C-alpha cells in the first residue's frame, strides 16, 4: 500500500477542515492551509497566528462542530494550521496534496500554477475535491509529470460519516497511482471507493439530483405536500429517514440550487435537461434566506406557537409555513413493517393509494434515467449502486432495485405506462447473481456476467454462506466457518436483538469452536451490531408476571456471557454501529474487541428502568478493582467512572472513546474499513490462539463495599434535590450502586464473580417489579427513545 504519512489540505472551509479532521482520525499528520486575511499584519515575528487565522479558526471550530468530525478531541493535535503565502514550501513535506478551495475553475487553476506546482514533492499525489468541475480541464494547468499523479478524490460531507469516495482520473493519470490511492483511501480512511467518469457531478450527485428533481415534478403534478413526499421517499422506499426535502435542508438548499444550475449548464446533451432547471419556488426560498438548517429554515423549521416549539412545513404554493401534519398512507404503513428492503419497496409499490402511485412514478423515472446514463457516468453497475448506497445512504442501489422489482416486471409496467426504455434493458434478466461464494455483475456492453473483485481482507458473511460456510443455524443466529480454524457467530434477528435462540447459538458456537477450531469472532452485518436484549420479551414477561421465566432468562444470558469469557479458545468481538446493552455485555466478555471506528456502544439499561444483568455490571466492577490493584491505588476513582457509565447510560461517540469509557482495553483494535473489520478480528483471534490460556471464574475479588455505595448515594440525593434527576432515576442508580460495590458488605470483603452475578439478577428482578420500569420499557418500544419518569 502506498505510504502517506503527511497530507496538505488546501482550503480551510467547512469541507476542508472536516477532511483534515478525518485524516487526523486515521493518525495522519495534516497541514491545513488557507488565505492570509486581508487585515493580517506583514510577515514577521509574532504574526504567524494572525496570518494563519482562517485555518486556525477552522481548527478551533472542529471541537464544537456537530456532528463531531473528530473521533476524539485530542486528535486535533495532528492538524497544523498555516497559510498559502508563508507555508507554501512546506508542501514539499507532504505525500498527498488535496485541493478543497472555492468551486471555481479559475481559482483552482491559479492555485495549482502559483502554489502547488512549484512546491510539490516529486512523487506526491495531487488531487482535487471538486464535485462538478472537469478533472481534465483542471489538469491543463499542470505539467505532464504532475498529471500522472493527479485525480479527483471527492469526499462526501460529512467526511467522517459518509463512506463514499468518488475517484475520477484525468486522461494522463497513472493507473498504478490511482489503484494505490484507492487502496489507501479504503484501508486507511475507511472509504468506499467508486470510480466515476469525467462528467458533471460524477455519479452520486448526478443521480441524487435527478431523483430529487423527479420527486419535485411528481409532487407538484399530484398536489402532494413536502411532508407527504418525505414520508414516501424515506425508509419505505429503502432510503434514509430524511426523505427528499429534509435531506435538502440538511445539505443546504442553496447547495442544491448550485448543483442543479451546474448540471443544467453543462448537460446540454441530456435529453432530460429541463427537469434539472431550478424551480422558481426553490429560487424564491434561497432568495428569502430559506436555505435549510444553516439558514432561517427550509422545507422544515421550528416555530414558537403559544409558548411551545412546533415543527412547521413549507407550503410551496403560498410560500408560507403551516404546522406539519403526519401523513397517513396505508402503503407506507405496510411497507415500514418489513425489514427486508427489497420486499419493503415491492410492498410500497403494490399499494393502491396516492403514495404508492407517487413512489412508482418517481422511482420509475429515476431508474430509467440511471439506465440511460450508465455508460456515460461509470464503467459498470456496481460503481453506480455503491455510489448511491455510500453517498446517499440508499439501502439498495438503482440496479439492485431493478433486481428487487424484477427487471422483466419493471420493463412490462413501464411499457404499460407508455414510457420509452433503452432496448438493451429488455434483454436483461438480472444485474447480479451469486454463485459459489462469489458475486457477479451484468456487463451490458458484453451481454455477460463478470465477477466483482473484492479488496484484500474484505469478508462478506453473506457470500460465505452462499458457498456453504454456514455450519450451525437457528432462527436468530448462525455460525459460519470463516477459515483458518476460526468461526464467526452472526445474529440475524430484527436489529440483531438477542433472545433465547441467540444465547443458545452462543453456547453451541463456542462448543463447536472449541472442538473444531482455534477461535471465534462475534460479528454481524447490516446497519448495527446489535440493539441488545429483546425488550419485547421482557415487557411481555413482566406484564404476565412470569417472574420465574424472567429469572431463568437472565441466568441464561449470564451463562452465555460467562461461556464467552471462559471459552477454551479466544473469542474476539467485532462490533460496528449500535452495540447497546446486552450487545455491549457480549463485547465486554470477549477476550478482545476489534471495533469499527463508528461504534456507538454503552450499557444503557437504566434508560428502560433496568440494570445491566448479563454480567455487565459485574464486569465493570471487576475491571475497576483490578485496575486499582495494578496501579496500587484506591478503587473509588476507577469504580466511579465505571459506575457513571452505567448510571448515566453513557454511549461512546466513536470506537476511540471506548477506551476512555473503560469498555475497551489496551491491545483492542479499531478498524476504519468496515469490510476489513471481520478479517482483522479473525487475525486477532488467530494471534491470541498461539499462546492461549483459558481463564477461570474470578474469586478473591475485594469488594469496594457499602461505604463506597453510601458516598454514591449522597451524590444522588444532591442531584435529586437539585432537580437534575428524578426520584426514580435516583432509585435505579442507588440499586446499581449496591451491585457494583459488592452489596451490603464492608470494603475489602472477598467476593466471587458468581456472587456479583447473583446481585445483578436480584436487582434486575427487583426493578422489573416496578411500575415505572414497565412504563419505561413500553415507551422505548413505542417511541424508540427513553422515558424519564
Automatic annotation (TrEMBL):
CDD domains found in the cross-reference section: crotonase-like
Catalytic activity: a (3S)-3-hydroxyacyl-CoA + NAD(+) = a 3-oxoacyl-CoA + NADH + H(+)
GO biological process, one term: fatty acid beta-oxidation
Pathway in which this enzyme or protein is active: Lipid metabolism; fatty acid beta-oxidation
UniProt cross-references to Pfam families, sorted A to Z: 3HCDH, 3HCDH_N, ECH_1
N-terminal signal peptide: 1-26
Domain 3-hydroxyacyl-CoA dehydrogenase C-terminal: 202-301
Domain 3-hydroxyacyl-CoA dehydrogenase NAD binding: 6-198
InterPro entries given in the database record: 3-OHacyl-CoA_DH_NAD-bd, 3HC_DH_C, 6-PGluconate_DH-like_C_sf, ClpP/crotonase-like_dom_sf, Enoyl-CoA_hydra/iso, NAD(P)-bd_dom_sf
Sorted UniProt keywords: Fatty acid metabolism, Lipid degradation, Lipid metabolism, NAD, Oxidoreductase, Signal
The keyword NAD belongs to this UniProt entry's keyword annotation: yes
This protein's record includes keyword Signal: yes
Coiled-coil stretches: none
GO molecular function: (3S)-3-hydroxyacyl-CoA dehydrogenase (NAD+) activity; NAD+ binding
PANTHER family: 3-HYDROXYACYL-COA DEHYDROGENASE FAMILY PROTEIN, 3-HYDROXYACYL-COA DEHYDROGENASE-RELATED
Designated name of the protein: Enoyl-CoA hydratase and 3-hydroxyacyl-CoA dehydrogenase
Organism: Citrifermentans bemidjiense (strain ATCC BAA-1014 / DSM 16622 / JCM 12645 / Bem)
